Model the fold of this input.
Amino acid sequence: MKTTAITGKLSVTKVMFKVMLGLAPGIIAYVYYFGPAILVSVAIASVTALVAEAILLFIQRKPVWPFLSDMSALLTAWLLALSMPPLSPWWLTVTATLFAIVIAKHIFGGLGYNPFNPAMAGFAAALIAFPSPMSHWSPPNQIAATRVDFKDQLNYIFPQFANKAFVIDAESMATPLDTLKVHVSIKEKIADMSYMPIFGDLAGKGTEMIALAYLLGGIFLWQQRLITWHLPVAFLAVMAGMAEVFHLVDPTKHADALFHLFGGATILGAFFIITDPVSAATTPKGKLIFAAGAALLTFVIRVFGGYPDGVAFAVLFMNMCVPLIDAYTIPPVFGRKPIRTPRRR
Done:
């Protein structure tokens, strides 16, 4: 989500700005395939995050502007909004953002002290507390039965201001991952699902192109040396490997590697979420272990769990393992042998 090391002239603000710039291609693709409602959700999350951060800083008697201007709260808001359904009602976005900023970030001491990824904590809290609105995903414009214009999208986001005749559930659907899981559970073969318009060439129609846009942004982060290769490569490699093994064993029940790579939040998670330097492992070996564990848990939740995607829960679980991972993967100081604790008899 941020950088692995902030040194020299690269300030926190510049890092956050470049990461948000890396998200821009995905946001543009999001608007093209799902409409401009996502921009409203991003704006709601951003305002909520800034206001909550300012109030908490004032209560703690910390300087408000230096912390607000580092853009860390804005980045959390963006990642959270981009992870939620694009037509989430305003109160759901506000609730998830408040949980991310107040509980997941500031209750542990603020930026640099939070053990959990704030955006994923807010997403997981919203999914557990409000499963119904969190499952209302709009179809991409290319396959929607009716064209939902921007005014109608605002009616979804602000239902209390909508016309009484407006039907809030008129245009919602499951995600490609959820659709796949449901049809597999009723003994339908994956090869027989190609007729469904929700599926594209790689994964879900629209969502696969958004994932490609996030990949472009992720490459930009790597080119700018804001992230190292360890986390995204390990995450994507383990995800692809697990998916391909299960697909080879039983292709009728398990999708191939490309579907899992470009479906759901895999690419967003690999480059923008698990790369958070505060809540992720910091050593080279630790990063590989952290990312591999997150990918493994994500795949297990997708295939065997009750949720269609598992990036948020996998990341939060691995966040709890970071102290142990770092403790066992810290390289010894040059010229010194590692200190080993004698075994008790």
Notes: DSSP finds 14 helices and no strands in the chain.
